[in-house]
Design goal:
Blueprint: E1 2-6, H1 12-23, E2 40-44, H2 55-58, E3 60-64, E4 71-75, H3 76-83, H4 85-96, H5 103-108, E5 110-112
Parallel strand pairs: 1-2, 2-5
Antiparallel strand pairs: 3-4
Helix pairs in contact: 1-4, 3-4
Length: 114
């Protein structure tokens, strides 16, 4: 199955929870939590997502390299300027998926278009 979601004027968290629910197959009748369904989710107009308040300068995007003192903390403004809105959407969706071996497989079923 193919799902297309338009991100125009949708809040970031609501968009991420909607996509994470579809990637988890929670909306499928044959839901089994240890299996990944054959589906793709496409998010269009990622640059038109709505980020409310002062989150662009106050919210922190963290990435860890795995090495000692490898934690990098950057504001959303910095991440959007360098990698685009697709990176913050991908980070929000990944944070809402279960932390298990299927997380990376489910993330491969996601495509984000600016």
């Amino acid at each position: 199955m193919n799902y297309t979601i338009d991100a125009t004027n949708k809040p970031l968290g609501r968009l991420a929870s909607e996509v994470a629910s579809i990637l988890n197959s929670k909306n499928d009748v044959n839901f089994v939590k240890n299996r990944v369904e054959e589906m793709t989710v496409t998010v269009t107009n990622a640059s038109k997502v709505k980020v409310t308040g002062n989150k662009m300068k106050d919210s922190v995007h963290k990435s860890f390299s795995g090495y000692p003192s490898g934690l990098k903390e950057r504001t959303l403004n910095y991440v959007v300027a360098n990698k685009g809105f697709s990176e913050i959407i991908r980070h929000a969706i990944k944070g809402m998926l279960p932390k298990n071996k299927l997380q990376d497989i489910r993330m491969k079923n996601l495509t984000i278009e600016e």
